[in-house]
Specification:
The protein has 18 helices and 24 strands. It is globular. It is an alpha+beta fold. The chain folds into 2 domains: 249 residues, Aminohydrolase, N-terminal nucleophile (Ntn) domain (Glutamine Phosphoribosylpyrophosphate, subunit 1, domain 1), CATH 3.60.20; 186 residues, Rossmann fold, CATH 3.40.50.2020. The strands form 6 sheets. The protein has an 8-stranded antiparallel β-sheet with strand order 11-9-10-1-4-2-3-24. A 6-stranded antiparallel β-sheet has the order 5-6-7-8-12-13. A 4-stranded parallel β-sheet has the order 17-20-21-22, sandwiched between helices. The N terminus is likely disordered.
């Protein structure tokens, strides 16, 4: 097929193994697909932890893998709303499309039509290292020896990306973005070894932090989960092929059949011969999955650690009720993530669960100065109270977490204005007292209200009649976790590997660049490689 004007098709088998800047062919057309981002403004979601990314991979000869990946990304949209991308391969060629915004904004029909092949990987991003711009959108393309070309998508955050980036530059890598993912992609492409087992073992020895990866070559799909298993990754059957995804809900969403979760330290390779799997020999028995996946990040209909997350969240709510009971007339959950916790709380104390808050799921970005008055209006845009349901009642308001505390005070005010007699706030997780370094945008202690104030002070600040948090032990019991098998560093300050107390997501934006490095430019939205 003759490429459209502005795009270049390059056969992978004909690619010269020279420097990446020679082999990466950019089209001459103006960037496409750059629609305005319409995820909610940060100040409106300031009490929500923000996740890094969602990944999906499809190996399905004979199927429309681009659309399968596209629909899979819809199921993972909650994991990232800044940008989205899909790369496909047909045995000789790769095609990559990335754009800013939600999945529905990033792809038009003609974009998906250009993504041909029998292998696809997709990605939806929220940035934790590197700015939210399209040169950091994923999948990332990287080049190795003997004509190896890979596309890579990443969920997590690597804490030693700085020195590894310098090392990769010494190996000849030229970086066009500022994310840790590009460092990972260059390392996997250039790692010594002739097999994926050798490459992955080398990279696992070097990379420190969280990384669940989907990697695509011209004829293989690879899934990798870091030795600590900090971020989730699972595999399912799809027709005569297979699908990888951050969460099992994405496999369900496209009509696949969930098989199992990828083990920490495991690499799976899918090709025409089926599925191969190998474990890094140094992977520990004690793992450290992010416990916030259970609390908030993962969807309730996903399976984590062998359990349906809906049931796990209900158990958190039940244990919260045992630790912090209160006389009340109704229990409500802050939509949507806290609803399972609230149902568990209500069932435990024998009080009716009610829907006292309605959420507007279509709040778009607003280009206004976030003054106090506008912030209050913003909460009204996001939530509305039902006076007929809550007037005169003593309410238990269950939420999954408090990060900064600002939105909670406005929700309490909204409920009081609607006539609630009492408002008892219950949080289905412990106080967040420390930062995250493994893929959640909580990089500064100054942002964390529980690191600076007591529970009573937070109660007074948000205007509640009482406030109670689930204990660390209660949380571990709810997720059936032994000490040391989950990362709970944001609650305890104790991490599975040594970390710096503060991190800078703009590390590579601010670092001086060598004068020999070419200026970064935004690539076309679609690339033929």
């Amino acid at each position: 097929m003759k490429p459209r004007r502005g795009y270049h098709r390059v056969a992978l088998s004909d690619v010269d193994p020279g420097p990446p800047q020679v082999r990466r062919r950019h089209g001459s057309s103006a960037p496409q697909g750059q629609l305005p981002q319409t995820s909610r403004p940060n100040w409106l979601d300031s009490d929500r932890p923000r996740e890094a990314c969602g990944v999906v991979g499809v190996y399905a000869p004979g199927d429309d893998v681009a659309n399968v990946a596209y629909f899979g990304l819809f199921a993972l949209q909650h994991r990232g709303q800044e940008s989205a991308g899909i790369a496909t391969a047909d045995g000789r060629n790769m095609v990559l499309h990335t754009a800013m915004g939600l999945v529905a904004q990033a792809f038009r029909g003609e974009d998906l039509d250009r993504l041909t092949g029998h292998i696809a990987i997709g990605h939806t991003r929220y940035s934790t290292t590197g700015a939210p711009k399209r040169s950091n959108a994923q999948p990332i393309i990287a080049y190795g020896e003997n004509g190896l070309t890979i596309a890579l998508g990443h969920n997590g955050n690597v804490i030693n990306a700085g020195p590894l980036r310098t090392e990769m530059e010494e190996w000849g890598a030229t970086f066009t973005g500022t994310s840790d993912t590009e460092v990972i992609a260059e390392m996997y492409a250039k790692a010594p070894g002739t097999t994926w087992e050798e490459r992955s073992a080398y990279c696992m020895r070097r990379l420190k932090g969280a990384y669940s990866l989907t990697i695509m070559t011209k004829d293989q799909l690879i899934g990798v989960r870091d030795p600590l298993g900090i971020r989730p990754l699972c595999i399912g059957k799809f027709g005569d092929g297979y699908i990888l995804a951050s969460e099992s809900c994405a496999i369900d969403h496209v009509g696949g059949e969930f098989i199992r979760e990828i083990e920490p330290g495991e690499t799976v390779v899918i090709d025409e011969n089926g599925v191969g799997s190998f474990m890094w020999s140094s992977a520990r028995d004690a793992h450290a999955m992010c416990i916030f996946e259970h609390i908030y990040f993962a969807r309730p209909d996903s399976i984590l650690n062998g359990n349906l997350n809906q049931a796990t969240r209900a158990e958190m709510g039940a244990r919260l009720a045992r630790e912090h009971p209160v006389e009340a007339d109704m229990v409500i959950g802050v939509p949507d993530s806290a609803i399972p916790h609230a149902v568990g709380y209500a069932n435990e104390i024998g009080v009716p669960y009610g829907e006292g808050l309605v959420r507007n799921r279509y709040v778009g970005r607003t280009f206004i100065q976030p003054s106090q008055r506008m912030r209050d209006i913003g909460v009204g845009m996001k939530f509305n109270a039902l006076p007929e349901v809550i007037r005169g009642k003593r309410l238990v308001v269950v939420e999954d977490s408090i990060v900064r505390g600002t939105t909670k005070s406005r929700v309490v005010k909204l409920l009081r204005n609607a006539g609630a007699a009492e408002i008892h706030v219950r949080i289905a997780s412990p106080p967040i007292i420390s930062t995250c370094h493994f893929g959640v945008d909580m990089a500064s202690i100054d942002e964390l209200i529980a690191a600076r104030k007591t529970v009573d002070e937070i109660r007074d600040l948000i205007g509640a009649d009482s406030l109670g948090y689930l204990s660390v032990d209660g949380l571990r019991n709810a997720v059936q976790a032994e000490a040391g098998t989950f990362c709970s560093g944001c609650f305890t300050g104790k991490y599975p590997i040594p970390v710096q107390l503060e991190m800078n997501k703009m590390e590579f934006e601010e670092a001086p660049r060598p004068t020999t490095r070419p200026a970064r430019t935004e690539p076309p939205a679609t690339l033929w490689i």
